[in-house]
Amino acid sequence: MKITILQLLLLSLASFRLTRLLVFDKITEFIRNPFFMEIKEENEYGEMEIYYLPKEQGIKKFFGELLSCYWCTGIWTSTGIVCISLLYPVHSFPFILILAVAGFASIIESIVQFFIGK
Q1: How close are the terminal C-alpha atoms of the chain, in Å?
Q2: Who's near 27: CB < 8 A, 6+ residues apart?
Q3: Residues 77, 19 contacting (CB under 8 angstroms)
Q4: Residues 6+ apart with CB under 8 A from 91
Q5: In a domain, 46, yes or no
Q6: Does 10 map to a domain?
Q7: Does residue 118 fall inside a structural domain?
Q8: Is the pLDDT of residue 117 over 90?
Q9: Could you tell me if 46 and 96 are in contact, meaning their C-beta atoms sit under 8 angstroms apart?
Q10: Can you give the pTM of this predicted structure?
Q11: Residue 28 within a domain
Q12: What was the pLDDT predicted at 118?
């Protein structure tokens, strides 16, 4: 089996975007919530800060630790993306392409935000 540079780039960008979606994005908070405890603390400026810690035991602890680690989640999302692309190349292509385009767009947005200073 041969994977082209373009395929590797698409798979990488799709894995990057899916990982960020699961670990950081607000839209998938409902997936993370069952595995985290919410801790609220007041900082030195009187503002409330919220921290999320993995649950303390069992399978919820395992998934909480997994979802709190960008690198760990990245391994599993990459595995899923690659397996789906190899098993169902035609059907998975639109999904992978959408994630890859979104991943590339988020990288461009980060660069733009860096240069305009916001």
Answers
A1: 44
A2: 21
A3: yes
A4: none
A5: yes
A6: yes
A7: no
A8: no
A9: no
A10: 0.85
A11: yes
A12: 64
Q: How far, in Å, CA of 82 to CA of 92, rounded?
A: 10
The Cα 60–Cα 64 span in angstroms is: 6
Amino acid at 75: I
Instruction: Count the neighbouring beta carbons within 10 Å of the beta carbon of residue 81.
Output: 25
In what helix (H) or strand (E) does residue 41 lie, and over which residues does it extend? strand 36-42
- Distance CA(69)–CA(83), nearest Å, equals 21
pLDDT tens per residue across span 53-80: 899 889 999 999 999 999 999 999 999 9
% of the chain residues with pLDDT over 70: 99
* Contact of 96 with 78, CB cutoff 8 Å: no
Q: Give the domain range for residue 16.
A: 5-112
CA-to-CA distance for 111 and 118, rounded, in angstroms?
Answer: 11
Size of the chain in residues: 118
pLDDT digits (tens, 9 = 90+) for 33-59: 999 988 888 888 888 888 888 998 899
In the chain, the number of structural domains is 1
